[in-house]
Design brief:
Phosphorylase Kinase, domain 1, 3-stranded antiparallel beta sheet, alpha+beta, Aminoglycoside 3'-phosphotransferase, Chain: A, domain 2, 14 helices, globular, 365 residues
């Protein structure tokens, strides 16, 4: 497997990126796709659906010229960019850049199921545009945050994450990509959501009615998060997906899972991805019965992929600590980032995990 070279880390602004959705035209899309497919010819496009979230996903139907009928670009693509109401805040803070970094620099060097990407670029504003396959054409099943996965599907996802984590375990590259920060850096969104006035407002939302008393205690949850951050900094580093909750996954078959939304890649502890994925994906009863077995399966896959051996008891102790991150995240999510029904389900699911794992006590709270 070839290594990534330093000049690749600075390939951006090859073509100007649209400043708004109106700038996404057939002419622009052809120029973007022609960087890798110089013979592509597009007659017209139709923006079929616009899906707003932290970023904006736009499903685009493409009418190609007859002579381009054999192109591997499908008749429908998914364009993702910073065109949401929160983009003016997120763009200058670099929240979108890492998706282009992942698809351009990292994805070709790791075996993990993900959408095929035909174009990915970021610019100096922090705007990022990726053009990927429309997975719906493959009839995959998109998992919802309000749903749950079978144990076999979670095992498939953990095998994928093990491959990702092992590939750059404690590698110098994790510090050479300027946009790739530590996971749990503190400040920013976390700081704002931990302000007493913000927290008190969150406690009036429907999600709070489903939470136990300890999960509503800002001092305990905040203190546990701070202590986790201190622990996290001392752990071995690997490349993380960063946000592998159930809503960022899809199934190719009932037992074959893939991940999308790669904009939160970071360097950090393997235990974050593993805990967050298991905790958001399984019903509480399934998690209680199967999580230790799933963790053992992940550790075996990590070693088989070239990662280090990790003793199971050590891994279990670390895994339990990371549960507090998921609980905090789904407790404080804004409704602009996630619909309230998602926050209700996953905050409750992760509160149960924190209780089962005695996470707050382990983190000194």
């Amino acid at each position: 497997m070839s290594e990534i070279t330093t000049p690749e880390l600075h390939q951006d602004e090859r073509i100007p990126l649209p400043s708004d959705i109106d700038g996404i035209t057939a002419v622009w899309l052809q120029s973007a796709l022609a960087l890798r497919r110089p013979n592509i010819s597009i007659r017209s496009i139709t923006l079929r659906q616009i899906i707003q979230g932290t970023g904006t996903k736009i499903l685009i139907d493409i009418d190609r010229a007859v002579e381009d009928a054999n192109s591997d670009v499908p008749r429908s693509v998914c364009l993702k960019g910073g065109y949401s109401p929160s983009s003016d805040y997120l763009m200058p803070r670099g929240r979108y850049v890492n998706e282009a970094v992942f698809y351009n620099l990292l994805a070709p060097h790791v075996e993990i199921r993900r959408p095929n990407c035909f174009f990915a670029q970021h610019d100096r504003r922090g705007q990022t545009v990726t053009v990927m396959e429309d997975l719906a054409l493959r009839h995959v099943h998109f998992n919802l945050a309000t749903g749950h996965l079978a144990v076999e599907a979670v095992a498939s996802g953990l095998n994928q994450l093990a491959s990702l984590h092992a590939r750059w375990w404690n590698a110098p590259l994790l510090h050479q990509i300027s946009s790739l920060g530590p996971f749990l850096p503190g400040g920013g969104h976390e700081e704002r959501q931990r302000r007493p006035e913000t927290w008190n407002a969150i406690m009036q939302l429907p999600r709070a009615s489903r939470l136990p008393a300890f999960a509503k205690d800002l001092e305990r949850i905040g203190g546990a998060l701070d202590n986790l951050r201190n622990t996290h900094r001392k752990e071995p580093l690997c490349l993380l997906h960063g946000d592998p909750h159930i809503g960022n996954t899809y199934l190719e078959t009932p037992e074959t899972l893939g991940f999308y939304d790669w904009q939160t890649i970071a360097r950090g502890s393997w235990a974050h991805d593993v805990n967050y994925f298991i905790g958001t994906s399984l019903l509480e009863t399934d998690r209680r019965h199967h999580e230790r077995q799933l963790l053992a399966s992940y550790l075996n896959a990590l070693q088989n992929a070239g990662g280090p051996p990790i003793e199971e008891t050590t891994a279990w102790d670390l895994y339990r600590l990371h549960t507090v991150y998921g609980l905090f995240t789904w407790t404080v999510n804004t409704v602009e980032m996630q619909p309230e029904e998602n926050n209700v389900v996953l905050a409750e699911r992760l509160a149960a995990a924190v209780d089962d794992h005695d996470t707050l006590r382990l983190l000194g709270q």
